Amino acid sequence: MTEREASQAAARALAGETLPAALPSDEAALRRWLRERVAEMLRTAPALVMSHLYRVDVREAVVQTALAAPDPAAALADALIAREIEKARYRHHYTPPPDDAAV
Fold this sequence. Notes:
- With 103 residues, the protein is mainly α.
- It has one domain.
- It contains five helices and no strands.
- The two termini are 27 Å apart.
């Protein structure tokens, strides 16, 4: 999974039904969009942000550190992306090979 794909996965996890039809095509724009969305949600629905972070399985210590950062929205968006990358690597590493005998 590329960082862009991880950013898209994080955006989908955070945005839910409000995900725009077309996400920004470049990684920097996608990251900016995710940071803006996190900032908006921190202002309007902080409990929902925490729920999404829990669902994506971002560690509580990482969340606390991000909330104490100078730009919490950026830090939380980066934490979401990092966790999606970590999960993708884990899935890739531990996915069993296809069973050739079953063919």
